[in-house]
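Z., the sequence and structure:
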Amino acid sequence: MDIQGRKLIKIATAGSVDDGKSTLIGRLLYETNSLTTDKIEAIERNSRQRGYDYLDFSLATDGLVAEREQGITIDVAHIYFNTNKTNFIVADTPGHVEYTRNMVTGASTSQVAIILIDARKGVIEQTYRHFFISNLLRIGHVVVAINKMDLVDYNEDVFLKIKADFDALVAKSNFSEDQITFIPVSALKGENITRKSDHMPWYVGNTLLDHLEVLEPQDLQESAVARFPVQYVIRPKTEAYHDFRGFSGKLYGNSLQVGDQVTVLPSGNVSTIKGIHFFDQEIDAAAPGASVVITLEDEVDCSRGDMIVKVGEEPSSEKSISATLCQVNSKNLRVGQKYILQHGVNRVLAKVEQIESKIHADFSGTEETEQLKLNDIGKVQLRLSKPVHFDSYQTNKSNGAFILIDEGSFDTVSVGFIE
């Protein structure tokens, strides 16, 4: 919640070339009064110059010159808008296969995915990829926006055919039916975006914006346990706080409160939370996402890179991990190569022991491979120089993700999701 009591929903959008994704986002911005006057004037001016008899809202989001010239989305843009009830952050991700890495990184922190489908084309190869990545990233809810309904005469049969085709994909995924919502829209005409369409009386559901506002952040999160990776040990150099020893970090997964019995990893020492400090206040409990300082009843060994968890909720601690990787660097990943693995605030050396398979991002299966190339997704086995304290990505996103870093250039090579 912000200071005005609004909830926050993080959205990733994906669509194929010319599906109208940028137009849809621009329409949402316009309808929620989130565009500045000069931006609206620029859209009106550019639309006239192009000879359009309508406002081209895609100009509100395609920020790169190359995007505007080609009419496609290349990079990931983060766009903000709000209503009286909700703040929204939209990661506008590209849909092309050569930008798979951009979609993976852009959608990795999102709670909701909006997948656009052109009503004239239906479910196509890129739709498979967009949904596969949403499934890989364990996004909490998917909205399938079937766009350009105005170009198929708002035909219900077209909508139902696409829905049936997409349902076949859902059956191959980890999603349940109640995590998928289908909405027929026309972003260009503004139908079912923020107002109900008179042209589609057969559709009885919410508009896109109304549906997004109904979603609750807590319902979109994985059922997780508390994870508090220590970023810094605080020892003030003042007489008033001579005996103060606090551990600062950001809390993930679930809440912690004063009096909780906790285990400090890797030492395994057990103590009790004595206090939780948020800026200059002492609070009784910390919610997920809060950056706080925790003090413990006992003088235990705890330093940067350690993790504080509740007793009985300890994560796995292993030197070998199985993970799904998305290759985000043009340097191919091969067996035997060594990298720096960054997991939270921890960095350890990692060696690629095995590439089990390359995964086809269309739910068609896997194939054997000796290397992973840029934008490839594959399953690998990694051997670490020392244990890390991890959960599976499915159980706890924050503690189940990592990146691989090139030892020489320090470039990010892969993003990983622990099995």
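The helical segments are 21-31, 37-49, 65-70, 100-107, 125-136, 156-170, 208-214. Confidence is low (pLDDT under 50) at residues 64-74.

Let me know what you think.
H.
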